[in-house]
Amino acid sequence: MSAQFALQMAPEVARQGLHWLRALPKAKSRASLPVVAASTVVGLILAQLLLSVAIADGAYKTEHLQAQKVQVQRDLSAVTGDLVRVQSPQYLAKNASALGMISNSNVVYLRLSDGAVLGVPVPADGRTLAGGNVENALLAGVPLVTDVPSTPAGAKPSADATSTRPATGSSQGSQGAPVGAAGSGAAGSVALQGGFPAVHTR
Amino acid sequence: MIQRSRLRVAAFVGLLALFAVIFVLRLVDVQMVRASDINAEAASRRSNETTLFGTRGSIVDRNGSVLASSVMKYDITISPKNARDFERTAADGSTTTVTRSQAAEELGRVLGMTGAQVLGVIDSALSEDPKSDFAYLAKEVDSATYERIQELGIPWQWAKRHPSRIYPNGAVAGNLVGYMGSDGAPLAGLEYMENECLAATDGVESSLVSGDASGVVIPGSTTVEKPAVDGGQVKLTLDANLQWFAQSVAAAQVRATGARWATVVVQEVKTGRLLAVVDVPTVDPNDVDASHPDDRGSRAFSAPYEPGSTFKSLTAATVLDAGKATVADQVVAPYRLLRDNVDVNDSSRHGDEQLTLAGVLVESSNTGMSQFGERLTPEQRYSYISKFGVGSESEVGFLGESAGILNDWRGWDAQTSYTTMFGQGLATTAIQMASVYQTLGNHGVRLPVRLIESCTTHDGKVIVPKEPAGSRVVSAAAADQTMAMLEQVYNKGWLAKKWNIPGYRVATKTGTAQVPDGNGGYQKGYLVSVAGVAPADDPQYVVSVSIMDPVLLNSSAASAPVFQQVMSEVLKQNRVIPSGSIAPDLATTW
Predict the structure, then answer these.
(1) How far apart are CA A112 and CA B121, in angstroms?
(2) Helix B430-441 / helix B312-321 crossing angle, nearest 10 deg
(3) Chain B residues within 8 A of A77 when measuring between CB atoms
(4) At B158, phi and psi to the nearest 5?
(5) Nearest CA in chain B to A123
(6) Which residues in A lie closer than 8 A to residue B249 (C-beta atoms)?
(7) B121 Cβ partners below 8 Å, 6+ apart?
(8) Which positions in chain B touch A88 (Cβ < 8 Å)?
(9) Which residues contact B43 (CB under 8 A, 6 or more apart)?
(10) Residues in B 329-368 with any Cβ partner in A closer than 8 A
(11) Strand, coil or helix: A201
(12) If contacts are CB pairs under 8 Å, which of residues 54-83 in chain B contact chain A?
C-alpha cells in the first residue's frame, strides 16, 4: 500500500527500483547490531561490577561499624559496671568514714514559717558507718578517695581562697603510674587514678 | 539469498532451542535430582549460625538502685594441640617469634596465673588427649581482661562469650535477690522466683562464610533468623540504702553479742510494702561460696521461731476487740499462776503486782496476760491469731517461705492454750511478726505483705502483681488502744533509755523467747526481739528485730539498740516530721 502510494507520488523513485531504500538501512543495521549488543553487555557488566564494588564497600563499612558498636557497647558495660559499683552503699560509707564523717540518725527540722524546731537536737554519738559489715566482693581492690593522692607530689597548695582541681580527661586505670604535674606548680592538673578526685574547697 | 537467510535463521533458532533444552535438563538435574545433596553441601559450607544473647533483666529497688544486672563476661579457652610458637606482627610490620612459653607467660600475667600454670593446663589436656583442641584457661573474666588477652594476638586462644550477672550492692539484700549458677540457671531467691519476668530469650543469627578454612564472614550476608528478646526488669518495694543500713547495724550487733543470727524487717504500715528484710549472716551473690549454705536464703521468711512476749500485743488487741477487757482493767499478777494442768511463771521472781492491762504489757507479765487471755476461748483466740496471718504463708510466697507453726486449737493441751497467749507453743516468721504490728498500726486492718512492686517487660509494659485487699482483723478502737498501751511500754519499760528516739512517739514491745531444742525441751539461749511502730500518733513504719542466742547479752537489751538505730534511720530517710504531740499517759498499776 505504501509502495503504490510512493509510486504515484514519486515516479522517479520507482524507476530507480527502490535500490537505495533497501540497501542503506540494511547495511547500517547489520553493522551496528553486534556493536550495540556487545556494548550493552559490556556496559551492563561494568555497571554490575561498579555496583557490586559499591555494595561490597558499603558492606565492609557496615561490618566495621558493627564491630565498633560491639566495642563501644563493651566499654559502656564496663564503665557502667564501675559506676554502679562505686555507687554501692558499702563504698560510699567506707569513703565517708575514711573522710572522718560520722552518722547521726537523729533528725531535727527547722520550720521556716515560724522558726519552730521540730524534734530534739542530739549530737551524734560517734558511731561511724563502717561499711565493712556488709560484704561486697566487687569492691576488692577498689581504692578509697583518701587512698588516691589528690595533690601531686611537689605541688604547693594554691594561694587562692578556693581552688578546684579538675581531673585530666585521660583515665590511667588502677595500674597507671602518676603522671603530670609533679613539680609543675600549683596550677598543674591531677590525673585520675582509678578513683574520683576529692574536691578541695578552702 | 532468501533461502540462505532462512537457513541461517533456522540454524540459529535450532541452536537456541538446543541450549534451552540443555539448560532445562541441567535445571531439572540441579533443582530436582541432586537438590538435597547440593543444598546440604551449600549449607554446611557457607552458613554459620551464632547465638544472639538476650540480656537478662535487672532487679532494682524502689528508687531504681540496681541490685542485680547482666554483664557479658568471657571464658578464655585454648587449643592445646595448636599451642606452639607463632609469629607476631607489630604495628610497624616487623615480625617477631613468640615461643610457646612466652605466650603462656603473657597469658598468665593477664589472667593472674604463672606461665607454668598455663603450660600445666596445656600439658594436662594433651596428656589426656594428644589431639585435644579445647581447654578452659579462665572462666568469666571481665571485658577489660578480655581485651588485654585479645591484644596478645595468640592464634591458639579463643574467647567464648558468657552472659553473667553482677550484684553491684554485694550482700545488700543478697538474702532476697538470690544468685545464679555458672551455667546461667537461677538458683535462689528472686532470681529464681521472678525468672519468668527476668529471663531473656536468645536469638539466632546466620551468616555466610567463605568456603575455605578461614571461614571469614561474607560482608552483608548476616541475617537475624530469630531476634533475641531481652528480659524484664523486676522492681522491688525494698529501699537498698535502708536495707544496707539495717544490715550493717544488725551485723555489728551480731558480732558484738556473739549471736547466731539476726533478722530485721521494716514494713510500711499503710501499704504493707517491705522496705527492708535483713538476714545476718547472709550471702554476697558475687561470691556465693564465701558464705555457709545455711546462710544463703532468708531466715526472715523461712525460719519460724517462738516469738515470745512481742506476741502479747496481739493477745491484748484480741481481748479488747472481743470486748472482754478495757485498757484500765485490773488484775493481780503473781509470780506464779496455777490452773488445772497449767503452770505459768514470770521471767523473774516478784511479789503480787496490781496491774492494769497496760501495766501487764509494760511489765511483760505472763501471769497477768494469762488472766486476760483466758477470758476468750481457745477457739476464739485461734481464729484471731489466724486472721493476723500466723499459720499461713505471707502473700510474698518467697522461696522456701514457712507458714509458721500454729496447731489447730483442738490439739492444744491446757498448758499450750495458755502459752500461746504470750508467744510460746506456736511459731511465727519475722515477716509474720512485722505483719502483726502492721495490722495494729493500721487501725486493725491487715494489708497483704508486698515485696515485688512490678515487672517491666522489654517493651515497656508494666505488670503490677494483683494483691488481695486488706482485711479487718480487730476494730480500729482495739488496735488504737493497743498502740497507746505499747507507747507506755516505750516510755516506761525497762529499755526506755536504750530505744529512745528523740522527738518521736513510738510504740514498742520486747520479747525474750525460749527456743525449742527439738527434743520437747528448750535450749539455754533465747531469741530476743523488739517490734515497734513509729510515729505512734500517725503510724507509718514497723521495725521488727530478732536476734538468736546473743550469748554475751542474753536479753532484749541486745535487740533494742538495733531497733533504735534502724527506726531512727527509717524516720530520717523518709523525712518523717517529728511528733508534735505527747504520748497519752495510761495507768499501769492500781
Answers:
(1) 71
(2) 40
(3) 71-72, 143
(4) -145, 135
(5) B502
(6) 133
(7) B78, B80, B135, B136, B137
(8) 168-170, 172
(9) none
(10) none
(11) coil
(12) 65-66, 69, 71-72
Give, to the nearest 10 degrees, the angle between helix A19-86 and helix B143-152: 120
Contact residues, B window 99-138, toward A, CB-based 8 Å cutoff: none
Q: What is the pLDDT along chain B (590 residues), one digit of tens a residue?
A: 567 888 999 999 999 999 999 999 999 998 888 888 888 887 776 777 888 888 899 999 999 999 999 888 899 988 888 888 888 888 888 888 888 888 889 889 988 888 888 888 888 888 888 888 888 988 888 888 888 898 888 888 888 888 889 899 999 999 999 999 888 899 999 999 999 999 999 999 888 776 665 566 776 677 888 899 999 999 999 999 999 999 999 999 999 999 999 999 999 999 999 999 999 999 999 989 888 998 999 999 999 999 999 999 999 999 999 999 999 999 999 999 888 888 998 888 888 999 999 999 999 999 999 999 999 999 999 999 999 999 999 999 999 999 999 999 999 998 999 999 999 989 999 999 999 999 999 999 999 999 999 999 999 999 998 877 899 999 999 999 999 999 999 999 888 888 888 889 999 999 988 888 777 778 888 999 999 998 999 999 999 999 999 988 888 888 999 999 999 999 988 988 888 788 888 888 88
CB contact (8 A) between residue A138 and residue B71: no
| The C-alpha cell that represents B398 in the structure block | 518467697
Cell representation of residue B566: 534502724
- Report helix angle B100-111 to B143-152, nearest 10: 170
Grid cell in block for residue B544: 521488727
CB B314 within 8 A of CB B388: yes
pTM (two decimals): 0.79
Contact B65 A87 (CB under 8 A): yes
How large is the ipTM? 0.78
Sign of CA dihedral B289, B295, B300, B302: positive
B131, amino acid identity:
K
Beta bridge partners of B305: B428
Asked if B72's CB is within 8 angstroms of A90's CB, the reply is: no
For residues B67 and B167, the answer to whether their CB atoms sit within 8 Å is yes
Which amino acid, residue B556?
A: S
Q: From the CB of residue A125, how many other CB atoms can be counted at a distance below 10 Å? A: 11
Distance from the B496 Cα atom to the nearest Cα atom in chain A, whole angstroms: 16
> Minimal Cα–Cα distance from B281 to chain A, Å?
9
| Helix, strand, coil fractions of chain B, as percent rounded to 5 | 35, 25, 40
Query: How far is the alpha carbon of B445 from chain A, nearest alpha carbon, in Å?
Result: 29
* Euclidean distance between CA atoms B286 and B316, whole angstroms: 45
User: In terms of Cα–Cα distance, which of B389, B397, B403, B391 is closest to B450?
Assistant: B397
Nearest CB to A134; choose among B170, B290, B504: B170
Q: What is the DSSP letter of B30?
A: I
User: For residue B239, what is its C-alpha cell?
Assistant: 529501699
Cell 524516720 belongs to which residue? Answer: B571
All three cell numbers of B135, joined, read 581447654
* Residue B500 contacts A where some CB pair is shorter than 8 Å: no
